[in-house]
Amino acid sequence: MVRMDGRGSKSDQETFSVSLDMHEQGDSKCFDDDGRPKRTGTVWTASAHIITAVIGSGVLSLAWAIAQLGWIAGPAVMLLFSAITYFTSLLLTDCYRTGDPLTGKRNYTYMDAIRSNFGGNDFKVKMCGLVQYVNLFGISIGYTIAASISMMAIERSDCFHKNGGKSHCRMNSNMYMISFGIVEMIFSQIPDFDQLWWLSIVAAVMSVTYSTIGLGMGIGKVIGNRRIKGGVTGIIVGTVTKPDKILRAMQAVGNIAFAYSYSFILIEIQDTVKSPPSASKTMKKSALIGVAVTTFFYMLCGCSGYAAFGDLSPGNLLTGFGFYNPYWLLDIANAAIVVHLVGSYQVFSQPLFAFVEKIVASRFPDSDFVKKEIEIGVPGLRPYKLNLFRLVWRTIYVVISTVIAMLLPFFNDMGGLLGALGFWPLAVYFPVEMYIVQKRIPKWSTKWICFQILNISCLLVTLCAAVGSLAGIVFDLKTYKPFKTNY
């Protein structure tokens, strides 16, 4: 019984104490140390996010890239990029928490990690943010282009099949881009990045599906040809001019860099992982799995495509119509590409969505338009919380990226440019510089010099790739008419 003076008996106090402990334990099971809902990500869900991010539409241009570089330089450049990506990913995983890897302050975004490690250096934070978010926006454009090309490829393959290859089967990409944009508008209203784990797993399965189909069809083509095409130095001068050969090789490097782009969302992926063990340990395992799986598929797809078509390798293996039959298998592969890109678009866009929404919420803390959430009942599911600002801002984002994709639908050139813009600053420079600060590596020490050599070398590669890709875009713009038929 409880006494009327407000003080409980000893047994009552013990009962209350036990009840309080149980309540606190219940809270600890529902929330992490930062007060946010418990993270549930594992090695496998993080690996799925990475595979979704890395095995993107870039895999389809690898046969073309190897064709520009040849049998020696092509695979060598691919292995080099995979090694650099994995190494710098390991450095970046340690930046998720400041201080202790298990209990230190969490950095929720790439920019938060920059801010923590460089002591609030505004220039570096702003530089990082500019490069990261421009690149994320560019990837949204690139994925819209790639998805529309795959949707057109399905229609074209069916058209060729019905007409026996006699019809030109011309069509416009605009409606396909608009359709893809509408789907992304719907998916963009998913409020939290960690709720996309299922979408990433579906997208990862799709990426493996179309990569495997491309690989199988490449091997089948080689067997049919009864020889391996291609040369040691790639496409020969004569087929193209010497300046074109150089520019194509530079663009090919950019395409390979684009195929490995994911470092700038690694911190966001890591923020979905549960602990203990420390999130850095989990992400290091996930990075190894993700990069190993993607490199395996990249080597097989790129090399089999080049072996099948040699110097005539198409810019997009499954939509450049290096293959015509079996048409139904091409349709499955291209449908898988579209599904994958729907997921990848969201994986890459969510960090930019979250950044803008965080800034606006801090500037307008009392605005109902920004803060208020309207609950909408969904049969069989928990109520959906609709936020008006999120609805308007994310819709505008998708519309703008779709319109730009319609104006510049150049798959290889855009891929090379995006790879060039994002690779050095986000995948190399910032991870290396943060590691140097964390470990307090003295200037001019052997390790410091090695890191600077890596930095400078990757900067030069990035500049070359950017020049080659920009030259390709300029060349395409001379003959392209916006909003007109592409095929």
Automatic annotation (TrEMBL):
Q: Name one Pfam family in it.
A: Aa_trans
Q: Which UniProt keywords apply?
A: Amino-acid transport, Auxin signaling pathway, Cell membrane, Membrane, Symport, Transmembrane, Transmembrane helix, Transport
**Domain Amino acid transporter transmembrane stretches:** 39-474
The membrane topology noted for this protein in its Swiss-Prot or TrEMBL record is: Multi-pass membrane protein
Q: Which residues span the membrane?
A: 43-64, 71-92, 133-154, 196-219, 287-307, 327-348, 391-411, 417-437, 449-475
Record localization: Cell membrane; Endomembrane system
Q: Is Cell inner membrane included in the keywords of this UniProt record?
A: no
| Gene Ontology molecular function terms on file | symporter activity
Specify where it is mainly localized. Answer: membrane
**One biological process term in Gene Ontology:** auxin-activated signaling pathway
Family statement: Belongs to the amino acid/polyamine transporter 2 family. Amino acid/auxin permease (AAAP) (TC 2.A.18.1) subfamily.
* PANTHER family according to UniProt: OS05G0424000 PROTEIN-RELATED (PTHR48017)
Q: What does this protein do?
A: Carrier protein involved in proton-driven auxin influx. Mediates the formation of auxin gradient from developing leaves (site of auxin biosynthesis) to tips by contributing to the loading of auxin in vascular tissues and facilitating acropetal (base to tip) auxin transport within inner tissues of the root apex, and basipetal (tip to base) auxin transport within outer tissues of the root apex. May be involved in lateral roots and nodules formation.
What protein does this entry describe?
Amino acid transporter transmembrane domain-containing protein
